[in-house]
Amino acid sequence: MTIGIEDFKKLIQGFEKPLLTPKEANGLTYSIIELLMKDNCTVELLKLLSRYLSKSAYENIIEERIIGHWCGYPICNIQNDKIRDEVKFNKIAEKFALKSYYSTRYCCKDHYLKSEFYRRQLSEDALFMRIELDKQWFSEGSIENDIRVLE
Ligand SMILES: [Zn+2]
């Protein structure tokens, strides 16, 4: 099933406030991770989620998807046994074994690159530190308007 903006509207109910407490923010982050751990989403939703996701929250989505053998890129719906949560080898080995790094997390190099492209645009700020969360989606000056998703 492909998750879209309409599905997210249901999930965000009760969180439509300018600011969230740390507890609310954690709850919402967890719900987003749960939403995308088994299903893929539309490009539009991935853009919108940049308003709510930090880099580390996005990394958690990737990790959860990998556990279920889903390609780490949330746009993709490929499930493959080659995708698995490998024991993390040390950083230097990882650097020299980049091919193995992405091929155990993504269905193809293209999706690894697209996922990285998206991740790098995300803010490091925790969700509870963000303001104007209730601003209209895709309105002028909103975070998601500046996000590019490679298609
Ligand atoms: Zn993929």
TrEMBL record:
Its main location: nucleus. Its EC number is 3.1.3.16. Residues 48-131 form the RTR1-type domain. It holds the Pfam family RPAP2_Rtr1. It catalyses: O-phospho-L-seryl-[protein] + H2O = L-seryl-[protein] + phosphate; O-phospho-L-threonyl-[protein] + H2O = L-threonyl-[protein] + phosphate. GO terms for molecular function: RNA polymerase core enzyme binding; RNA polymerase II CTD heptapeptide repeat phosphatase activity; zinc ion binding. The keyword rRNA-binding does not apply. One of its GO terms (cellular component) is nucleus. Putative RNA polymerase II subunit B1 C-terminal domain (CTD) phosphatase involved in RNA polymerase II transcription regulation. Belongs to the RPAP2 family. This is RNA polymerase II subunit B1 CTD phosphatase RPAP2 homolog. It comes from Pichia kluyveri (Yeast).
